[in-house]
Predict the structure.
Amino acid sequence: MQTQLSPEYEQRADGQAAEAILRKCVHCGFCTATCPTYQLLGDELDGPRGRIYLIKQVLEGAEPTRKTQLHLDRCLTCRNCETTCPSGVDYGHLVDIGRKIVDEKVARPASENAVRWLLKEGLPSPLFGPAMKLGQLMRPLLPSSLKNKVPAPQAAGHLPTATHARQVLLLTGCVQPAMMPNIHTATARVLDAAGIQGVVAPQAGCCGAVKFHLNDQEGGKAQMRANIDAWWPFIEGGVEAIVMNASGCGVTVKEYGHILADDLAYAERAARVSALTRDLSELLPALVPALRQKLKHAPDASRVIAFHPPCTLQHGQQLKGGVEQHLSALGFTVQVAKNEAHLCCGSAGTYSVLQPDIAYTLRDRKLGHLDELKPSVIASANIGCITHLQSGTATPVRHWVEVLDDALSDRAS
């Protein structure tokens, strides 16, 4: 794609980065076939190719409008288009730049700004945990729109106390400890069963994704730097990896090196952190032989686990098939939806709050395909997907590591 940056952007680093991405696009339109919002809305400007043109026009000097902003807002950043693209267009990074430059020029309504501020400041806040507990106490009285965002209280379970020579860092994250604390403890127990100790850096917090993708990119970078500082003594101490049990956090931490590449004080360490980061599923090939001997009972092969691979896992991290393959090797019956397994469920971080109509339509479409498998449980790999899907079904929705942990501890999953 030929581009001619306006003088405003030709000397800016983000303008130059965007131009390099734009030049890879060959207008083929393959991306529209796998874009959830294009499939639902049928508008070229609500697909990747159309959004790319909008961003190109702004970079070349066109004045963006509220409509431009809306089309970019409607993007789920699921990055399915990156998986489809034959030319390697780095759309996820491009849309981050596009949203930033459009928001510099287009004011949002006060009500919209207020919601976005509450999300980016509230979700990573220490007050989120107490607020969630209060919401759970009041859950029976909440309207459905709020109840959907407040899962029923969950017992955390115990943390293992054994120490092991092999250690990995775990990130508890911002919302997961309050919403579904058992995911973290189940992760620690599964690793412990394989002779690996999961350790937590007390000062590490939100991965930075919430603020970064709500266009507080400097706020997100500050959280990234804080995590690097918190993890660095452990990295110097020899931890094997930084393991993520939320794929949304994982894809972000794997991009610290890219996001902080121009930060002279942090670039080298950020690249090291990204290189050490692994999704929990990436450990499964090495874990399966040890865990097979620790299963308290053989999984019931007649009980289907319907696995929903989050977009941040299959498109953002390009990790496909690992969970299904390795859980199957342990005796579980794991299936993915026969139709549209590649499409987003509509959660997409804060998207389900900001764009609820699209989000719930995608949720129900996804659940329809998963229900065809007649599963006893739906499993996923990201807290957002799990909460969002659970709001639309009576079938239990869990993290796959919880299902595995139950088999190791002789609990029915």
User: Anything to note?
Assistant: DSSP finds 24 helices and eight strands in the chain. The longest helix spans residues 217-236. The longest strand covers residues 166-170.
